[in-house]
């Protein structure tokens, strides 16, 4: 199988690191010439796809691919991949399978209730509304051209270099208290397994939530990370008093628990890190956050 990836970023590169040996060729896009130089190897052919310049070879590699992973988020009002390559993809016999990486943010605020894939998307932020539109557009392309388009709705991603252990050492971790608030999260290794499962799935045009078993208060995650490191956790503060970015603050406007039952049943997935405890413990044992 030949693979093409729109957006060779954090999640996609972890997938390639784990499963890349199973592909005949791997090509994909990056935003800068620097990234082209960093990623070029016998395993990966990186191609420039930026706002002002793109590698014309993208069309050749895309046309030869059996499967495509799309991990580039939509812009302000349009999906850049669909805008630039949607018609090309629709007109090709290949690729036959497309995996679109979306977000559980499309469900909006559910006041802490559980939500599964049978529930309608009710986005409350503009970035989530653009995600919903992108999901619909990719699904429509799949149905009209008889391609398998699967959507993975990802929870908050953590893993090597991106976790509460690193944030504590950097002094950027907060214990923000908002009563009954929980966040959903997923280890990047489990995302890789979900992508692999979706590529192998014998079915058409499915949607799966990719989240761990335990949506949890964010302050509990920081406290557990501090215990692993043997340090005092940062003091508890209210959301109103927290000095955080508008983007981070906006996450607290939504509260939901994303069910992963469909993912486990249909893709027969067993999470490597079913809660943040297993995930952070493994990261700590691997040296994350150590001085």
TrEMBL record:
Keywords: Isomerase, NAD. One of its GO terms (molecular function) is isomerase activity. Coiled coil: none annotated. Pfam families: Epimerase. It comes from Beijerinckia indica subsp. indica (strain ATCC 9039 / DSM 1715 / NCIMB 8712). Residues 94-210 form the NAD-dependent epimerase/dehydratase domain. This is 3-beta hydroxysteroid dehydrogenase/isomerase. CDD domains: SDR_a4 (cd05266). SUPFAM superfamilies: NAD(P)-binding Rossmann-fold domains.
């Amino acid at each position: 199988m030949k693979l093409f990836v729109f957006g060779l970023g954090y999640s996609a590169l972890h997938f390639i690191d784990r499963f890349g040996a199973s592909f005949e060729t791997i090509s994909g896009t990056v935003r800068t010439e620097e990234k082209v130089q960093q990623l070029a190897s016998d395993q990966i052919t990186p191609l420039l796809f930026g706002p002002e310049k793109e590698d014309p070879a993208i069309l050749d590699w895309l046309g030869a691919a059996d499967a495509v992973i799309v991990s580039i988020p939509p812009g302000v009002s349009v999906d850049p991949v669909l805008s630039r390559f949607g018609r090309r993809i629709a007109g090709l016999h290949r690729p036959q399978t497309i995996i679109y990486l979306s977000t559980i943010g499309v469900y909006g605020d559910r006041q802490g209730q559980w939500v599964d894939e049978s529930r309608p998307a009710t986005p409350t932020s503009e970035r989530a509304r653009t995600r919903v539109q992108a999901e619909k557009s990719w699904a429509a392309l799949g149905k009209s051209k008889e391609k398998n388009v699967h959507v993975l709705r990802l929870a908050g991603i953590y893993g090597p270099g991106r976790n509460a252990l690193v944030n504590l050492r950097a002094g950027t971790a907060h214990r923000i208290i908002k009563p009954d608030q929980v966040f959903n999260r997923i280890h990047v290794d489990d995302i890789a397994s979900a992508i692999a499962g979706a590529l192998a799935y014998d079915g058409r045009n499915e949607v799966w939530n990719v989240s761990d078993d335990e949506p949890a208060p964010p302050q509990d995650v920081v406290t557990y990370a501090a215990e692993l490191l043997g340090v005092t956790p940062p003091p508890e503060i209210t959301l109103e008093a927290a000095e955080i970015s508008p983007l981070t603050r906006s996450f607290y406007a939504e509260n939901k628990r994303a069910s992963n039952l469909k993912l486990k049943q249909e893709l027969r997935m067993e999470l490597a890190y079913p809660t943040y405890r297993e995930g952070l413990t493994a990261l700590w044992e691997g040296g994350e956050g150590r001085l």
